[in-house]
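FORM 7B: Structural annotation worksheet

SECTION A. Query
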Amino acid sequence: MWKPGASAHVIGLLATDHKLSSASGINAKGQVVGASGPDEEHAEAFIWSEAEGMRGPGFLADAAPRSHGTAINASGQVAGSSSTHRPSLTHAVLWDQAGAITDLGALSDRPNRFRSGAYALDDAGRVVGVSMTN
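SECTION B. Predicted structure
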């Protein structure tokens, strides 16, 4: 993380076996979201702040642990994506301030096209992103 007039600050990794972390969003409080993992295919969403450090908010399905935080609003809600019970499919999600995860679903009910992802959210909790439809 870079601050005006200061050098870069390393925010770290979620676990000791992780080799990468990637930040995707920051709010006015300096809370940062992104993903950390041993590689890009097995990354887990994180929320970081100077006061609390880095924590992982979780996944939709423990059987397929992959998630990514992409945006955070002023109240600390995080938008992103998480793998579902089918590891190759992801859904847009919203994590609340306590870490509870809400599956935002997808626009298609076709079994092989059930993918979506959240890219941004506003301070009212409205989320925008992408969903495959056919």
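SECTION C. Observations
Residues 56 and 122 are 21 Å apart (CA to CA). The chain has a mean pLDDT of 88.

SECTION D. Sign-off
Analyst initials: ____
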